[in-house]
C-alpha cells in the first residue's frame, strides 16, 4: 500500500489567490468591529456562506459579500496585515511562491488614489516576503465589468511597476459580461511590457470563453479553465501550447459550477496533458486554502503522491518565479516524493 505523504510538506506554487478573498475570517471580524461595519450573517456565521453564482442573482450575492469584506480594508496597516497573514497561511500549506491577484482600483478610494494603492500593496508584499521567506509577487487584474479603457490604464500601470513586483496581468469578475476581445489592447500592453497574461475563463461559461482567452488575449495561463474539459479539441490545444489552467476545485463547488468535488474535471485535464496549478481562489468565502485543494485531488480523484508531486511541479513551472526559486522548489518536490 502506497504511503500517504503530508501535502502541507509538498513544496508548491500558488498562482490563483484573490486579495480580499485571502483574508482570515477572524481578521475580517476584527476589522469590521474596528470600523463599525455591519457584516451580513453569511460572513459572521463561522461557516462558508452558501453561494450559487451560476445565475446572475447568485453572482451578485457573491460579489456583494466580497465588496462588504473589502470595505473593511481601509489603511496601509490593514493591507500589511492581510498580506502578511496570507503569506503565513501559504507557508503553512507548503507554498514556496505566491502570486496574489488584485485590482488596485478597488482600494484606491481608501488609500489615496490608484498609484498610492498599488504602491502600498507592493510594499506590503515585499515586506511580507522578507519576513516570512515566501516568494511573493503581484498579478494586477482588470475588471471585465468596467470599460476596456480602464483596463488599459491598469495595464500601463502594471508595466510601470514590473520592477517592483508586478509579474502578470489578469481579467476577473463575471465572465458572462464583457467580451474578451474588448480587452485585447490592454493585454497587448501588458505582454509587450513583459507581463504574463492570465485572464479568467471557463468557469461560469463554457469552453468558448477559454478559447477566447487564448485567441484574443494570447493567455499563457487561464484563471480556472475547467470548462475546457467539455471540448476535447480545446484540451489538445491547451496541452500543445502548454497553457496552464489555474484550477480551484473548492471554489468551483462553492459557486455551483459543479455539484460536488468528484465532478470537478481534474482527472480529465490531467490525463489530457493540460498543465494545472491548483489554487484556493477566495478562502474567506470558500472555506479552504491551498493544501486542501491537493487533498481534494487525492480523496475525490484518486491522485497518487507521484501525481500530486507532478501537479506541484506544474504549478512551479507556470509561475513567474526566478529560475533559482523554481529549481529549489522542484528539488524539494523530488525530496518529498523520495521520503519514505
Describe the structure in your own words:
This protein is an alpha/beta fold and 340 residues long. It is 49% helix and 13% strand. The chain has 15 helices and 7 strands. It has helices at residues 25-35, 56-70, 76-92, 108-111, 114-132, 148-160, 184-192, 207-217, 232-241, 249-254, 266-271, 283-286, 290-301, 305-317, 323-338, and strands at residues 12-18, 95-102, 135-143, 166-172, 196-201, 221-224, 244-246. It has a 7-stranded parallel β-sheet, with helices on both faces. Helix 8 links the parallel strand 5 and strand 6 (221-224). Helix 14 (305-317) runs antiparallel to helix 15 (323-338). The longest helix has 19 residues, at 114-132. The protein is globular.
Give the low-pLDDT segments. none
Derived structural class: alpha/beta
Q: Biggest sheet, in brief?
A: 7 strands, parallel
First-to-last CA distance: 12 Å
Oligomer description:
single chain
**Strand elements, count:** 7
- The shape, in one word, is globular
Spatial strand order of the main sheet: 1-2-3-4-5-6-7
- Report helical residue fraction: 40-55%
What portion of the residues fall into strands of 2 or more residues?
A: 5-15%
Mean pLDDT: 93
Order of helices and strands: EHHHEHHEHEHEHEHEHHHHHH
Amino acid at each position: 500500500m502506497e504511503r500517504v505523504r503530508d501535502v502541507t510538506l509538498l513544496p508548491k506554487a500558488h498562482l490563483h489567490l484573490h486579495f480580499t478573498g485571502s483574508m482570515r475570517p477572524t481578521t475580517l471580524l476584527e476589522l469590521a468591529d474596528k470600523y463599525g461595519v455591519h457584516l451580513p450573517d453569511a460572513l459572521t456565521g463561522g461557516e462558508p456562506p452558501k453561494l450559487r453564482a451560476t445565475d446572475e442573482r447568485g453572482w451578485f450575492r457573491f460579489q456583494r459579500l466580497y465588496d462588504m469584506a473589502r470595505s473593511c480594508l481601509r489603511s496601509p496597516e490593514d493591507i500589511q496585515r492581510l498580506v502578511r497573514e496570507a503569506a503565513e497561511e501559504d507557508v503553512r500549506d507548503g507554498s514556496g511562491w505566491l502570486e496574489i491577484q488584485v485590482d488596485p482600483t478597488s482600494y484606491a478610494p481608501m488609500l489615496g488614489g490608484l498609484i498610492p494603492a498599488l504602491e502600498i500593496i507592493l510594499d506590503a508584499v515585499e515586506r511580507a516576503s522578507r519576513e516570512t521567506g515566501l516568494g511573493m509577487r503581484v498579478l494586477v487584474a482588470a475588471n471585465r465589468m468596467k470599460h476596456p479603457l480602464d483596463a488599459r490604464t491598469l495595464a500601463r500601470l502594471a508595466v510601470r511597476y514590473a520592477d517592483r513586483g508586478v509579474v502578470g496581468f489578469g481579467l476577473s469578475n463575471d465572465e458572462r459580461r464583457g467580451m474578451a476581445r474588448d480587452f485585447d489592447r490592454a493585454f497587448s500592453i501588458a505582454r509587450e511590457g513583459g507581463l504574463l497574461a492570465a485572464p479568467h475563463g471557463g468557469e461560469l461559461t463554457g469552453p468558448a470563453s477559454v478559447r477566447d482567452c487564448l485567441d484574443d488575449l494570447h493567455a499563457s495561463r487561464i484563471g480556472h479553465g475547467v470548462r475546457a474539459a467539455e471540448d476535447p479539441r480545446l484540451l489538445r490545444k491547451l496541452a500543445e501550447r502548454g497553457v496552464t489552467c489555474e484550477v480551484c476545485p473548492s471554489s468551483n463547488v462553492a459557486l455551483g459550477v459543479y455539484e460536488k468535488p468528484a465532478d470537478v474535471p481534474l482527472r480529465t485535464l490531467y490525463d489530457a496533458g493540460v498543465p494545472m496549478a491548483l489554487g484556493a481562489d477566495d478562502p474567506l468565502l470558500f472555506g479552504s486554502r491551498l493544501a486542501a485543494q491537493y487533498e481534494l485531488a487525492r480523496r475525490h480523484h484518486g491522485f497518487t503522491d507521484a501525481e500530486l508531486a507532478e501537479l506541484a511541479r506544474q504549478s512551479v513551472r507556470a509561475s513567474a518565479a526566478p529560475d533559482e526559486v523554481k529549481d529549489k522548489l522542484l528539488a524539494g518536490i523530488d525530496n518529498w516524493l523520495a521520503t519514505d
